[in-house]
Structures are given as structure tokens and as C-alpha cells.
Design brief:
By secondary structure, the protein is of the alpha/beta class. It contains ten helices and eleven strands.
Length: 332
């Protein structure tokens, strides 16, 4: 049910005059009534019923006046609809390392699954931006071009997995270059790449430094994330005859100097995700750093409700006038 509001509520102060009107009516009625002093009223019976009902004329007039006051206060309901418009959006490409080391179990259940959950949450929190997805190992390809259709991006994130599509390895330069290629022609206010890796650059024919220079040239900001705990972690090192991965404890190696250099050169920031919670905090921080300007248009549809009150007041006055000219005519 829509809430009723009043455009001119100050007119309700007029209700304070009604008690004075009642007092004035009672006083005038007493003054206008003729009196006769006799020893007994027994001979007159109980009196006329119409004489007792005559005050109903005044009651009708009071009700009509009350309805007029409410109408003057302008009751109305309002239907508010909002429409948002992105005035300065952000185009984002998430570049994800899908090499075999992303199956390491230092994040739960493993690095890749932990990333997928956090990345999906990040996408859902940015409904007004365009987002794309690049995956890379020794090579790289665009899994989803930059799009405003979040359903497509979320589906692409959920389908990320380790397979033989890409040659195993970590080609940071390849992943970064592919992401830059998706954004270089963008007209957005801000162009951002979120580059995630868990290792060192050991594959690909494009050096990460070269890729970062290209990103800088196109005004693309790169946030880099090194994923992996400090010290040792369970890494996959072979595949058993039954197709299951075999794991053993190995030293975690991340080229943090390279990641810091890429972020610094492009105006971004480097983060280290050593746990599921830390990874989520990093994406939350990036979400706050890259804000989108949104213009909100609010439309008000007013439905005036004073007309029924005016009609009610008119009807009450008409009834009062009719009774005064007919049934109560002899008392006037």
C-alpha cells in the first residue's frame, strides 16, 4: 500500500477552530431558544423527535468543513521509481593463471577454486562496469571479451579449470599482453587489469616488462596479485594411473619484484594473497579503489487524493441544505 503524504499539512491547524465553533453553536442555540416557565411539563408529553435531531444539521456542516480542511492539505500518494545511469564506468579484465601449480592446496580447497569464488563475488559487486576474462599458462587466450553481461562472465569464471588446452607453464607476459589487447581500444574512464599468478615467468615469447610498457602506453592500470602462502605448500607433481594428481610439499616461489614492478609502472598496486580470507580482502580493496560514478534519476508519480474529500464535503453540505429546507424547515 502506498503511503499517503500531505503537500500542505499546515492547514490541519484549522481543526483547532472546530471546538470554538461547537461552543459558539451551543451558546447561540441556547440564546435563540424561547423559554417558558410553568409548574409542570406533563401536559406537553415527550416532545418532538425532529427537535431532538435538529443538531444533526450542525454535525453535517462540521463534517463538511473537516473534509474541506483535509482537501486543502492536499493528500496524495507517490510512486517513486529509480533509474541509474553509469556516467564514468570502468572496464576491467581479470587475467588468471591456470597453470598446474594453481592446484596447490595452501588455499582451500585449492588456489584455483578459492580464486573462482572470490572473483565471482567481485564481479557481482560491480554491476555497472564491463568485465572480461583472460586465462593463461605458457600461452594465453580470451575466455570472455569485455562485456556488461555479468551472467556470461560468471559462467566463464565457474568453468575455469586446469586442462591440456594450454601448454603448462607461467607466461605472465603473455597473459598481460592478451589482457591489454582487450582494453587498448576502450573508451572507458578507467581501464584496469587484475593480474593473478602463483609463480615466476618461465614461458611465453613476450617479456612481462614489455607487456607492462604496453599497458602503461595505453593508460591501463594493472593490479597484480601473488597467490600462495609463505614457505611450503602441497603442489601437484605427477598424475597417478587412475588419473588423480599426486601432491608433495614444495617451496612456494613468486616473483614479487616483477609483480611490484608491473604494478608500480602502470599506477596499480601489488598484493600478496596467502590465505582465502586475504584473497577476499584484496579483491574488496580493489573494488573500493576503482569506483564508478553513477547518476541516479528519480521519478515521482503523484496521485492526488483531495478530490474525494471535496466531493464528500459537497455531498454533506447538499444533504444538510436539503434537510434544512424540508424536515427541519419549521425549526429555522
Amino acid at each position: 500500500m502506498k503511503e499517503v503524504t500531505f503537500l500542505n499539512p499546515q492547514f490541519f491547524w484549522l481543526f483547532l477552530l472546530l471546538p470554538f465553533a461547537i461552543v459558539w453553536y451551543l451558546w447561540k442555540r441556547k440564546q435563540q431558544s424561547a423559554t417558558l416557565k410553568i409548574s409542570s411539563l406533563q401536559a406537553f408529553g415527550k416532545g418532538s423527535v425532529l427537535a431532538k435531531l435538529q443538531p444533526i444539521l450542525f454535525v453535517l456542516r462540521l463534517l463538511a468543513l473537516s473534509a474541506i480542511i483535509v482537501a486543502m492539505a492536499r493528500p496524495r500518494t507517490v510512486d517513486v521509481s529509480n533509474k541509474t545511469k553509469t556516467t564514468k564506468g570502468v572496464d576491467i579484465v581479470i587475467a588468471v593463471d591456470v597453470s598446474g601449480s594453481m592446484l596447490a592446496k595452501d588455499l582451500k580447497p585449492n588456489r584455483m577454486e578459492a580464486l573462482k569464488r572470490v572473483a565471482a563475488d567481485f564481479v557481482e559487486k560491480r554491476p555497472n562496469d564491463r568485465i572480461g576474462l583472460v586465462v593463461y599458462a605458457a600461452e594465453a587466450y580470451t575466455k570472455t571479451p569485455v562485456t556488461s553481461d555479468k551472467a556470461i562472465v560468471l559462467d566463464a569464471i565457474s568453468s575455469i579449470k586446469y586442462d591440456n588446452t594450454l601448454q603448462d607453464g607461467t607466461g605472465i607476459g603473455m597473459g598481460l599482453t592478451t589482457a591489454v589487447n582487450r582494453l587498448k581500444d576502450s573508451k572507458a574512464k578507467s581501464k584496469v587489469i587484475i593480474l593473478l599468478t602463483d609463480g615466476v615467468n618461465n614461458a611465453g615469447f613476450i617479456e612481462p616488462e614489455t607487456a607492462s610498457d604496453i599497458a602503461q602506453q595505453y593508460g591501463i592500470k594493472v593490479y597484480t596479485i601473488g597467490i600462495g602462502t609463505n614457505g611450503m605448500a602441497e603442489f601437484p607433481y605427477a598424475i597417478a594411473p587412475n588419473g588423480q594428481f599426486l601432491f608433495r610439499m614444495m617451496q612456494v616461489e613468486i616473483d614479487e619484484k616483477l609483480m611490484q614492478s608491473i604494478a608500480r609502472k602502470t599506477g596499480g598496486k601489488y598484493f600478496r594473497a596467502t590465505s582465502n580470507n586475504k584473497l577476499k580482502q584484496i579483491y574488496d580493496e580493489i573494488n573500493k579503489l576503482e569506483t564508478t560514478e553513477i547518476q541516479e534519476l528519480r521519478f515521482y508519480d503523484y496521485d492526488e487524493k483531495y478530490r474525494p474529500w471535496i466531493c464528500a464535503a459537497g455531498l454533506l453540505l447538499l444533504i444538510e441544505f436539503g434537510l434544512r429546507q424540508t424536515l427541519f424547515r419549521s425549526f429555522i
